[in-house]
Amino acid sequence: MSLLKATAVAFLSLSGLALAAPYPDKPIRLIVAFPPGGPVDITARILSTQLADILKQSVIVENKVGAGGNIGAQYVANAAPDGYTFLVTSSAFAVNPTLYGAAAGYTPEKNFIPVVVATTQANVISVNENVPVKSIAELKALTAKENLSYSSPGNGTTPQLTCENLFKVIWKANITSIPYKGAGPASFAVLSGETPVGCTAVAGVYQFAKQGKVRILAVSSEKRLASLPDVPTLAEQGYPQIKDYTWTTVFAPIKTPAAIVQKVNQAINQVIANPEMKDKFDQAGLLIVGGTSKQASDYITEEVKRWAQIVKETGAKAD
Question: How many CA atoms lie within 13 A of 156 on its CB side?
Fold first, then answer.
């Protein structure tokens, strides 16, 4: 009996050591729900290098795209809640449960824990350099004369809903929505002239605007952006009801231990507080946010409610 007891004690001691292994002890994956080149991907890749240094472990970015961000969200919703798989996605996360219904494949509050809102940015309305308009008023006049189309990161994304609200609900204009699979492809569409108009978040077309190849007509934020001081807001141009943003948030699968959520939250806040990293975000047209997991959760809850109302008002459809 004494031998059995000794064996049991040794086994429990070893198990305790295994359970007490410091986190993380293997690579962490950031699942990005949108293609490379857009604000979500840019945010994840800026974060990943510094997170690896802080957490002393590899941080791998993987793009799992499709269905307006639902593919990536579903993947993480079904992942083990062990702190080694996180979702990095945009405001489409808050839109899709209403837009897609059950087909979204997740429920924000039942399947995820918001870790931190990392970055945010205004949505912008832009035109190819060859389109002869320099203001929202001139674009409205042009829609009455010509059959135009606009690119967006996908049906139900916040840039697309911003433009559907302006073009269809407010203007009653006949302008065709052309959804792409992410902000990168949508931005290249307006750059190339494949669509004369683009509706994206700032980061998608920011560099193209700086090069003079795309003209940004308006931003959807409450105030002008420091990075685009000459671009007026939609409110300044007669649409004070439009104050929209596209954010990028990191989520953990539900039931991920609170200690792990807090550790990753603190690490991300450390990254975005780094002046060198802030410069990288600034160069991409992204504004850092940060804060606690509780603050992120409260914000996401309100965003889900707000965008549900906009989906209903615009009559937006998933297809």
Answer: 24
Give CA–CA dist 161/168, Å, rounded: 10
Q: For residue 165, what are the CA distances in angstroms to 44, 56, 145? A: 29, 45, 20
Identify whether the C-beta of residue 152 lies closer than 8 Å to the C-beta of residue 177. Answer: yes
DSSP-assigned beta bridge partners for residue 125 = 199, 218
C-alpha 25/C-alpha 32 separation (Å) is 22
Pairwise CA distance, residues 81 & 102, whole Å: 22
Percent of the chain with pLDDT over 90: 75
pTM across the whole model = 0.82
| Cα 31 to Cα 35, 38, 72, 120, 157, distances in angstroms | 11, 14, 6, 18, 18
Q: Are strands 245-253 and 112-128 parallel, antiparallel or unpaired?
A: antiparallel
Name every residue whose Cβ is closer than 8 Å to that of residue 202 and which is 6 or more positions away in sequence: 39, 121, 122, 123, 124, 219, 225, 227, 228, 285, 286
Please list the residues that pair with 198 across neighbouring strands. 126, 151
In terms of Cα–Cα distance, which of 309, 242, 303 is closest to 93?
A: 303
Task: Return d(Cα 164, Cα 160) in angstroms, integer.
Answer: 6
122 bridge partner residues = 245
C-alpha count within 13 angstroms, C-beta hemisphere, residue 62 = 18
Give the angle 102-105-108 at the CA atoms, nearest 5°.
95
Q: What angle do CA 302, 305, 309 make, to 5 degrees?
A: 140
| Residue 290: C-alpha distances to residues 55, 108, 129 (Å) | 18, 19, 35
pLDDT of amino acid 284 = 81
The string of pLDDT tens digits covering residues 240-265 is 999 898 899 999 999 999 999 999 99
